Amino acid sequence: MKVPWKIAIVVVAILLAVMVCHNTRPRRLTAQDTLLATPVPAELATHEAVTGRSEQTSSLCVVSNVPLAGGFADADYRKREVTRLARQGAAERRTAVERAEHEGWDPRTETDSESSRLIAIRDGRPYVLITHNRNAGISIAVDRVRNTDPFNLSGSGRTIGLWDAGHALSTHQELAGRVSVMDGSPYWQGHSTHVGGTIGASGVVAMAIGMAPAVRIDSYDWNGDLSEMASRAMAVPGETNKIQVSNHSYGPSTGWVGLSPLRWYGTWGAQESDGFGSYETDAAELDTICWNAPYYQPFMSSGNDRSDSVPAEGEFFSYYDSGWRQTAYNSSIHPHADNWDNGGYDTIPTRGSAKNIVTVGCVNDAVSGGTRFLAGATMTSYSSWGPTDDGRVKPDLVANGDMV
């Protein structure tokens, strides 16, 4: 069982612990770092019409008349951005679901191991979000500061944002009294609850204790995540009803996905998914949110794509071309395995390519005989690798996430 999406959680917990002692300002890329030499997503060509703010664009870069870092401290500007993102996301979801229904396919999937939801169809490509512990605490040395002198850190008095396929079960014995369902999400979800427990289980069962066992969790489903993040992200120190960190153990389906039959996500006709390593609309929006809220840090998983293989020769698989279709696999003309490039370079899905988030990869447990053993922190076979298409190193960090 591979669950590398959970490694984002353990790093979030470390940051939570640091926040208890220090209200420090996370480093942000400068305006030039963030905006210059940034590929322009096609959707941003009409940005001025949506936001009322002028933006000059070229084929190579964006030079934008944006506010200074911390722009969300201006309540009116934050409200406009939250409204824009909410309307934009809702319209894309509605249009995509209507198209899926017209084409006769299900815009959501649920299996024992993962969930997925269609949120957009862009440039002819479905944009589908998919869900991607005691040893975890030892591996990253949380056990040395959690409820331990002289630090005694537990997350008490702090709140983390948790976005996932659904909301965490607020009545779970390990989370009871500390989970708030923030967006009216109609159902709890097992993956979301497992993630919430890894972050903050109180230790009713000692082996299940989370990284920050007293932290409060504001739980959301992933519908409208960008607008919700923009509404909650802390722009200035001490801002009330805002959060400083959030966890996102999911990402866009990219390349080969292990449904039955196998499904390929990418522009049909290409031999590698164009979603890998690309800086697209959502990555740009994430960077804008972080730029406007410099005291907020989202953590996102790097993905699980590096070991995804192709169908057997002649085996049928699905691909999208104005509807899901099937054909027999022919290695001479059809897409490569996701790890075709020297064992899996350039397999970070687009959201993980954002510049101001922390993208987290997965290694094996660094534990031997119940103690920390860093030599055990070897790379898993499936955690996605960079670099991004514009040459940046990703992931930013790694932590243990296999068999958590």
What series of H and E elements makes up the topology?
Answer: HHHEEHEEEHEEHEHEEEEHEEEEEEE
Rounded average pLDDT:
81
For the terminal residues, how far apart are their CA atoms?
Answer: 9 Å
Q: Which structural class best describes the helix and strand composition? A: alpha/beta
Radius of gyration: 21 Å
Number-wise, the strands total 19
- Helical percent range? 10-25%
- Which outline best applies? globular
Poorly predicted runs are 3-7, 15-27, 29-65, 133-139
Strand order of the largest sheet: 7-8-6-9-13-16-19
Largest sheet: 7 strands, parallel
**What is the tally of helical segments?**
8
Beta-strand content estimate = 15-25%
What do you see in this structure?
By secondary structure, this protein is α/β, with parallel strands linked by helices. The protein is built from eight helices and 19 strands. The strands form five sheets. Strands 7-8-6-9-13-16-19 form a seven-stranded parallel sheet, with helices on both faces. A hairpin with a 4-residue loop joins strand 1 (55-57) and strand 2. The radius of gyration is 21 Å and the shape is globular. The termini are close together.
